[in-house]
């Protein structure tokens, strides 16, 4: 299965805590100056969702596999429309997060999204057109390793494509969103782009997506806890690369260990060995923590989750802040783990039931 098989975003319900309330902002719908034969509609809508990396962070950039879980509770919706009242310095398109008509997307994210729209126009042959206004309703907290930038990019490109009446296949969506991700992160593996459009857990290796086989996982949950600490994936990648350059052979050892843990975890999941899979999570956390990618707060939360009965726990995403995940065998255990994490200071948590994915196993 190629990466394209995971690009269907679906219409996932937005049940997580919103980061920005919907405002009374009215999307411009004027298409003045746009010929009818180049205009399909006055508003385009695109959707995506968050993700959590189970295993494979950082090593995936060096060709190792990574395992990712879609998080449909964390939804993103983008609305794209025409505008005849563009700010003088706004370029071809303006981006606004819901909650305030004057709240722009942060500069780094806006740069990537501007590049995304520019590449879309080149790819699809769209000529000059009036200014576009894009409004993004994103429930994914930024800088937490949950795929905020990739999900926003995916939602935006789907909205713009619908606005222009252009059909994009899965590979085209992937390649376009990667352009924005490479601006945001310096070098992006592509796993976030794939996972923010997937409807199933996936294994991502060097641009190829395979559906992750889930065995008898029963009523298991992955609990995601937000530390409230902003983590920069770009800084984390550079930190790890710098360590590799200073210590000969460290890159090979890191990637070899990460690959072994991830591939073993794939077999554990396929065979329904939840306890063994949990151990791989904790072992991978130790690998990332030793490399300096965790934080004292998240290390303490991993210990708290394990003490509460979690089968395994680890930091998730790029590191240097962000979120951690913990594996619970059943709902009651999940509630206790969640209680402990909130007591330890988690600003918010989400639970993703693994059982919902069991039917996808071949």
From TrEMBL:
GO cellular component: cytosol
Functional pathway: Isoprenoid biosynthesis; isopentenyl diphosphate biosynthesis via mevalonate pathway; isopentenyl diphosphate from (R)-mevalonate: step 1/3
Domain GHMP kinase C-terminal: 266-345
Enzyme Commission designation: 2.7.1.36
One GO term of the biological process aspect: isopentenyl diphosphate biosynthetic process, mevalonate pathway
Cross-referenced InterPro entries: GHMP_kinase_C_dom, GHMP_kinase_C_sf, GHMP_kinase_N_dom, GHMP_knse_ATP-bd_CS, Mev_gal_kin, Ribosomal_Su5_D2-typ_SF, Ribsml_uS5_D2-typ_fold_subgr
Domain GHMP kinase N-terminal: 116-196
Molecular-function GO terms, alphabetical: ATP binding; mevalonate kinase activity
Cross-referenced SUPFAM superfamilies: GHMP Kinase, C-terminal domain, Ribosomal protein S5 domain 2-like
Keywords: ATP-binding, Cytoplasm, Kinase, Lipid biosynthesis, Lipid metabolism, Magnesium, Nucleotide-binding, Transferase
Cellular location(s): Cytoplasm
EC primary class: transferase
Family note: Belongs to the GHMP kinase family. Mevalonate kinase subfamily.
Name of the protein described by the UniProt record: mevalonate kinase
Gene that specifies this protein: phm17
């Amino acid at each position: 299965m190629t990466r394209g098989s995971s690009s269907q975003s679906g219409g996932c319900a937005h049940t997580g805590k919103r980061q920005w309330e919907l405002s009374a902002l009215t999307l411009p719908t004027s298409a003045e100056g746009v010929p009818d034969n180049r205009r399909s509609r006055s508003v385009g809508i695109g959707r995506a969702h968050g993700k959590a990396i189970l295993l494979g962070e950082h090593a995936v950039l060096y060709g190792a596999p990574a395992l990712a879980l879609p998080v449909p509770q964390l939804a993103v919706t983008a609305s794209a429309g025409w505008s005849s009242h563009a700010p003088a310095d706004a370029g071809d398109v303006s981006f606004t997060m819901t909650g305030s008509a004057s709240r722009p997307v942060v500069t780094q994210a806006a740069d990537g999204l501007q590049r995304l729209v520019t590449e879309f126009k080149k790819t699809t042959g769209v000529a000059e057109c009036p200014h576009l206004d894009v409004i993004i309703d994103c429930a994914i907290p930024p800088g937490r390793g949950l795929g905020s930038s990739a999900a926003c990019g995916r939602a935006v490109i789907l909205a713009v494509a619908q606005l222009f009446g252009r059909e994009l296949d899965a590979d085209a969506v992937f390649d376009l969103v990667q352009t924005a991700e490479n601006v945001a992160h310096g070098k992006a593996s592509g796993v976030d782009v794939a996972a923010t459009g997937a409807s199933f857990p996936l294994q991502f290796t060097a641009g190829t997506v395979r559906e992750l086989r889930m065995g008898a996982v029963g009523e298991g949950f992955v609990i995601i806890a937000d530390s409230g600490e902003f983590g920069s994936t770009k800084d984390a990648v550079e930190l790890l690369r710098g360590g590799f350059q200073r210590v000969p052979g460290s890159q090979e050892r890191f990637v070899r260990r990460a690959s072994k843990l991830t591939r073993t975890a794939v077999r554990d999941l396929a065979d329904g060995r939840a306890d063994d899979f949990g151990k791989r999570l904790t072992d991978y956390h130790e690998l990332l923590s030793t490399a300096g990618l965790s934080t004292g707060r998240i290390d303490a939360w991993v210990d708290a989750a394990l003490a509460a009965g979690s089968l395994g726990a680890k930091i998730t995403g790029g590191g240097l802040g962000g979120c951690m995940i913990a594996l619970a065998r059943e709902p009651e255990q999940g509630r206790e783990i969640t209680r402990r994490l909130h007591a330890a200071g988690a600003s918010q948590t989400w639970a993703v039931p693994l059982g919902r994915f069991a039917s996808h196993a071949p």
